[in-house]
Amino acid sequence: MQRTGFPPGVPCWIDLMQPDVDATMAFYSGLFGWTYEVRTPPEAPSQYAYALLDGGIVGAVGGPPGSDDPSGWTSYIRVDSVDETVAAVDANGGKVLSPPMDIPRAGRVAQCADPEGALFGLWQPAELLGVQQVNIPGSWNFSELHTTAFPAAEAFYGAVFGWTSTAFFDGDPESDRYWRRAGYGDFLAARDPEVRAWQEASADSTPEGFADAVAIAQSLAREGADASPRWTITFGVADAEASYQKAIELGAETVTPLTDTPYTRQSTVRDPQGAVFTLSEYRPPADS
User: Fold this and answer.
1) pLDDT top residue among 68 and 143
2) For strand 230-236 and strand 140-147, is the pairing parallel, antiparallel, or unpaired?
3) Which of 106, 192, 211, 224 has the fewest C-beta atoms lying within 10 Å of its C-beta?
4) Strands across the sheet with 119-125, in order?
5) What is the pLDDT of residue 70?
6) Residue 257 DSSP one-character state
7) Domain spanning 11-125: which superfamily?
8) Is it true that 11-125 and 140-282 share their CATH fold?
9) Could you write out the three-class secondary structure of 33-80?
10) Judging by beta carbons within 10 Å of its beta carbon (0-12, 13-18, 19+), is residue 194 exposed, middle or buried?
11) Quick check: bond before 64 cis, omega within 30?
12) Model confidence pLDDT, tens digit, residues 215-240
């Protein structure tokens, strides 16, 4: 799906900063077919490049990372004012990891952590409105928060971004949940009539209100004692098995082997420099 912008409160951008940028580019090019547009001048101390798929921006890679940068993929949430949002993060128990700063012409950015320490970014757009390709093979599909306590997470993200969460499966306290931003489904449908058709066609096979979904929430209770609160990302793929095998051939390590969910077949891998992400093939229920 080609995107030309995101409303406030919706994840809009992803990037990855690693020590060996050339190796990063080679891995994701080999896995997804990405090409790159380097945005930094040759004399800059670090490199930053937009990743492209079918001519549209799917995110960015760069490096080497600064001392405060997370080692994995970072999800950025679109806001009207980074400065006002970092104040809300601080007021609601979060932490500002890097203060607001301007990226010439592109926008204004900050990095934060929620009260449990899960890292995320804020993006106030200027010329860069966000990613352009989403939900196609080789592009960003969803971001996921791994948390120890759904009520506390909902209180924080509700206060900062206006999110609410809904369980995929009623009656299961550890069920994955989806974050909703009221009106997001209408925003999408107004810009692409095919989205409205999909929303109507899938109404019986998707959870109530899923049209407004902006992210996923997962319980750490199912991940073991060593798991820590964090944000992760999922990329869409056309063939779960082939993409998993390709990632391993390119030097990735298995975190979670291929598995089926009610809607997907997926695996989670760690790239050669340590960034973790999920590969997901959408497989709707047979009766949908």
Assistant:
1) 143
2) antiparallel
3) 224
4) 35-38, 47-53, 56-63, 11-17, 74-78, 119-125, 107-113, 95-103
5) 59
6) E
7) 2,3-Dihydroxybiphenyl 1,2-Dioxygenase, domain 1 (3.10.180.10)
8) yes
9) CCEEEECCCCCCCCEEEEEEECCEEEEEEEECCCCCCCCCCEEEEECC
10) exposed
11) yes
12) 999 999 878 778 899 999 999 999 99
- 3-state DSSP assignment of residue 248: helix
CB 58 within 8 A of CB 140: yes
Q: Which residue has 């979904």 as its token pair? A: 213
Q: How far apart are the first and last CA of the chain?
A: 21
Residue 284 and residue 265 in contact, taking contact as beta carbons nearer than 8 Å: no
What's the CATH fold of domain 140-282?
Answer: 2,3-Dihydroxybiphenyl 1,2-Dioxygenase; domain 1 (3.10.180)
Exposed e or buried b for every residue in 257-266, given b needs 16+ CB within 10 A? ebeeeebbbb
CB atoms within 10 A of CB 247: 25
Dump pLDDT digits (tens) for 68-120: 555 699 999 999 999 999 999 999 999 999 999 999 999 999 999 999 999 99
Please report the pLDDT score of residue 288 as a whole number: 46
Domain ranges of the chain: 11-125, 140-282
